Every structure is written in structure tokens, then in C-alpha cells.
Automatic annotation (TrEMBL):
One Pfam entry name: Aldedh
Family under the similarity heading: Belongs to the aldehyde dehydrogenase family.
Region (Disordered): 1-37
GO molecular function: aldehyde dehydrogenase (NAD+) activity
Catalytic activity: an aldehyde + NAD(+) + H2O = a carboxylate + NADH + 2 H(+)
EC top class named in words: oxidoreductase
Record InterPro entries: Ald_DH/histidinol_DH (IPR016161), Ald_DH_C (IPR016163), Ald_DH_CS_CYS (IPR016160), Ald_DH_CS_GLU (IPR029510), Ald_DH_N (IPR016162), Aldehyde_DH_dom (IPR015590), LUC3-like (IPR044086)
Cross-referenced CDD domains: ALDH_AldA-AAD23400
Protein's name in the database: aldehyde dehydrogenase (NAD(+))
High-level lineage: Eukaryota, Fungi, Dikarya, Ascomycota, Pezizomycotina
Aldehyde dehydrogenase domain span: 27-470
List of catalytic residues: 250
UniProt KW keywords: Oxidoreductase
Ranges annotated as biased composition (Polar residues): 1-24
């Protein structure tokens, strides 16, 4: 089918997609626009029967899709990409409503998904050939089967297509479960994809908290790719163990930024702030702790405070840099970090101890000046726009401080002395370390966490293997 718009796409009704067909249910729920607190459209709550039917359809589609030549799969994904991009404006509008993101950042996410397509379309599935006097060993990577993708609410398009694209490229079929907080863009993208893909290759079943366990325990699903909290990730891993499913878990972080004394303070201060407050702090690899050398601590903090004061928070139409917290549950959690910091008497360098009430879930960006190491704001991930700063003087000590966490997703080092910055960066216990940049994951690089920040990873050349089994052919030479 030509990648042009089709009249059947409606932007005020939403459904699950099973075996290429719309699927509704008796039970419904609604998302909430976090900028206004108003309820959005009804979406169906998937059932066990929906999951069973989707798995059956995916298994059937896998028989053909997995045997489709790689170049043909790439051609199909190219058509999917082009078709998806024709709906960019509608998806941007929809994302603003379901996430509350400022429009420029919603546009960046919607259009940025094309980078994930383009990167993967340039990859080939690796093969490795080893030979000795006796035999040839050919290692191929073959698709697993049906993948279940459990996706989060902070980046609903990037983090769903970031699973869909490599899964399909490698020959798997996939069932996507969007977050019940942000179901709309994902459900619509899967609906759009049905104009290009054969039934059963890509399906979507949204619902409530009961739906995830239906995927993780289903014997017909070969792999679960999950992005979310550490606590839920542990439950996913435990549930998947019953059928020895493959799992990829991308979980929470407590990212440290270490600032060396030689940095350009006025240049780096806004970067540190954006690393902490991008997407209102609702980023797994957002900076959660900032360690600034004592020689520049006061001046750097002053510059960070001034920049933070200039940040506008508001709804998507207001031209704001930051939007609201996406949902009430997370909003209430973030407020507890303000309450704890206030009750403990910590210094608010910028921001108010009380989160002001509004019709939406808005939180002003806040910096806590030098709380103790055992404070909750240091030890835990707020997943909101509040960040602590601390001074440091000894390099060995600050590395230990940065690594003193059960998380290990991302980290940053800032300094003009690149050799020193890289030396420190190599010692930080995190899956992705950024030198002279805040955390900016890219589809070109493998992304995964150390310690309790996850198992395995995705993206980059190595990320394709996360959706494959290694298959080794041992051919012995003729006698």
C-alpha cells in the first residue's frame, strides 16, 4: 500500500489492535491531560482473551515474517516509517494532550522516531565465522518468536518504537502494551501500521495493571522487553522465570554528574540544569545528583539558580520549556521529596518547599543545596524536577560517592581536561557515561543499565542480538 493518509484513521476514538483488526472491550478507562487535569478519550481494557488471541495471531504471522528476507523486511519497515511520518502533526497534537509536553519537545519525540527507523534500516544482522583445521563454525542470530513490549509513560513513542523496530527487523513479531497513563499515541501508531504490515506482525493491547502479568506469564511469548521502575522490573523478571522467557529490563537510575574545577561555569551551568530537568525530570537517565568541585561550587550553584529561575513551566500551548508531571500518582510521589527536604531542614537554593496547587500537575524546578549523603533526595530517584547538589574535593572520594547506589544507568563528567574526565568516566558504574554532555541516549549506541538499573539492553549494533537467539552451525571438514 502506498504510504499516504487513509480516511479510516480517526483521532478521537481508540482501540486495541489484534490480528490486524480493531478490538474493543466492555471495560474502559480514560487517560488524563496532566496540564489541565481533564479526562481524555475512552480506551479499552484488554483481557486474557485479547492476549491469547494476539499471541496466536503473532505466532502465525511469525511463520512468514521470520522467513521473509532481511532486505524485504527493511523495505516494509521503510514504508512503515514513511507512512508514520505523514501523521506527524496529528501525533504531535495527541502527544501534547496525553503527556502535557511542551509542543517543541512533543515534536522532537514524534519526528525523532524516524532516527530509530533510519539507524536500524542501515544495520545487518551479524554473522560470525570461525575456522580451524577440523571445522567451520558459523554463528547466526535468529529471531526469538513473539515479543511482548511493556512500555512506559514518559516517552511513549520513542520507547515503544525503540522496541518495535529492532524486533521486527530481526524477524520477530511483537505485541505492545502501552502505559495506561499514555495509551493514545501508541495505540494510534499501531493502528496506522496495519496499513503497511500484515496482520499479527505488530499488535497493541492496552489495559490496566492486570495486563502486564498476562504477557509475562504467557507461554506463547518468547521475550519481554520492559522499561519502567526497578520494583516492577523485578516482578517482570520473576514472572518471566516460569517459562524462562528472555528479558530485557531498562529500569530506573540515580545518575551522578561530576563537575571538575576547570569547566566554563557560565557555559556549563545551564547544561547541568537541563540534564536534571529535561522533560520535567521524568527521564530514566536524567541527572539525579550533581557533584561540583568545591573551588567552583558557590559560583556554579549561583549560575544554576539564575538559569533555573528563567525556566518557564506551563502547558503545551504556552511556549514553556517544562510541562507538568505526567500523572497524579507520580505527582504525589514527587511532592514527598519536597516534603521530606522541608521537614529535614535542607536548603532550597531555588524553588519553594511547598508545591503550589494548580489545575494541572505542575512542579517548579528545584535545587537542594548540599543535603547529607543519607538524605532521601540523594539516595532515591524522584523522577521529577528536583535535584541535589554537593561539593567535592577528593577525586577518589567523589567517585565512590557517585557509585554508592544500587542503580547504574547513566552518569556524566564535565571538564576541559578530557583525559581526566574520561579517566573518571571509565570508573563510574553505569551503562552509559557522557563526557561534557548531559545524558542523551541515541539509537546508535547500546543502552542498558548496570546493577539494579536493568538486565541486558537495546539499540546500537549489539542491540539487535537482544531480539535473537545465537544459532551455531558446526560443519566438520571432509576426511
Amino acid at each position: 500500500m502506498s504510504p499516504s493518509k487513509v480516511s479510516s484513521i480517526s483521532w478521537d476514538s481508540f482501540h486495541n489492535t489484534v490480528d490486524g483488526q480493531p478490538r474493543n472491550s466492555k471495560s474502559k478507562h480514560r487517560g488524563v491531560n496532566p496540564a489541565t487535569g481533564e479526562e481524555l478519550w475512552e480506551v479499552p481494557i484488554g483481557t486474557q482473551q485479547d492476549i491469547d488471541d494476539a499471541v496466536k495471531a503473532a505466532q502465525k504471522a511469525f511463520e512468514t515474517w521470520s522467513e521473509t528476507p532481511l532486505e524485504k523486511r527493511k523495505e516494509t519497515l521503510t514504508k512503515f516509517r514513511d507512512h508514520y511520518m505523514t501523521f506527524a502533526d496529528e501525533l504531535i497534537d495527541l502527544m501534547c494532550q496525553e503527556t502535557g509536553k511542551p509542543r517543541q519537545f512533543a515534536e522532537f519525540e514524534v519526528k525523532g522516531a524516524s532516527m530509530f527507523f533510519d539507524h536500524h534500516l542501515n544495520l545487518n544482522i551479524p554473522e560470525e565465522r570461525d575456522e580451524d583445521d577440523e571445522k567451520v563454525m558459523l554463528t547466526r542470530y535468529t529471531p526469538l518468536g513473539v515479543v511482548g513490549a511493556i512500555c512506559p509513560w514518559n516517552f511513549p513513542i520513542i520507547l515503544s518504537l525503540g522496541k518495535v523496530i529492532p524486533a521486527l527487523l530481526t524477524g520477530n513479531t511483537i505485541i505492545v502494551k502501552p502505559s495506561p497513563y499514555t495509551p493514545y499515541t501508541t495505540l494510534k501508531i499501531v493502528e496506522i501500521a496495519q496499513e503497511i504490515l500484515a496482520p499479527g506482525i505488530l499488535q497493541a493491547v492496552g489495559g490496566d495493571d492486570k495486563l502486564g502479568p498476562m504477557l509475562t506469564t504467557h507461554p506463547g511469548i518468547a521475550k519481554i522487553s520492559f522499561t519502567g521502575s526497578i520494583a516492577t522490573g523485578k516482578k517482570v523478571m520473576a514472572a518471566a522465570a516460569s517459562t524462562l522467557k528472555r528479558v530485557t529490563l531498562e529500569l530506573g537510575g540515580n545518575d551522578a554528574s561530576i563537575v571538575l574545577p576547570d569547566v566554563d561555569i557560565k557555559k556549563i551551568a545551564p547544561e547541568l540544569v537541563m540534564g536534571a530537568f529535561q522533560n520535567s525530570g521524568q527521564v530514566c537517565v536524567a541527572t539525579k545528583r550533581i557533584y561540583i568541585h568545591e573551588d567552583i561550587y558557590d559560583e556554579m550553584l549561583k549560575e544554576m539558580v539564575e538559569f533555573t529561575k528563567s525556566i518557564k513551566t506551563g502547558d503545551p500551548s504556552s511556549g514553556a520549556l517544562l510541562g507538568p508531571i505526567q500523572n497524579k500518582m507520580q505527582y504525589e510521589k514527587v511532592k514527598t521529596f519536597f516534603e521530606d527536604s522541608k521537614s529535614q531542614g535542607y536548603k532550597f537554593a531555588v524553588g519553594e518547599p511547598e508545591v503550589s496547587k494548580s489545575k494541572g500537575f505542575f512542579v517548579q524546578p528545584t535545587i537542594i543545596d548540599n543535603p547529607p549523603n543519607d538524605s532521601r533526595i540523594i539516595q532515591e530517584e524522584p523522577f521529577g524536577p528536583i535535584v541535589p547538589t554537593q561539593p567535592w574535593s577528593d577525586e577518589e572520594e567523589v567517585i565512590k560517592r557517585a557509585n554508592n547506589t544500587n542503580a547504574g544507568l547513566g552518569a556524566c563528567v564535565w571538564g576541559k581536561d578530557i583525559e581526566r574526565a574520561e579517566r573518571i568516566g571509565k570508573r563510574l558504574q553505569a551503562g552509559s557515561v557522557f563526557v561534557n554532555s548531559w545524558e542523551k541516549p541515541t539509537p546508535q549506541a547500546f543502552f542498558g543499565g548496570h546493577k539494579e538499573s536493568g538486565i541486558g539492553g537495546e539499540w546500537g549494533k549489539e542491540g539487535l542480538k537482544a531480539y535473537c537467539n545465537a544459532h551455531v552451525l558446526h560443519t566438520y571438514k571432509s576426511k
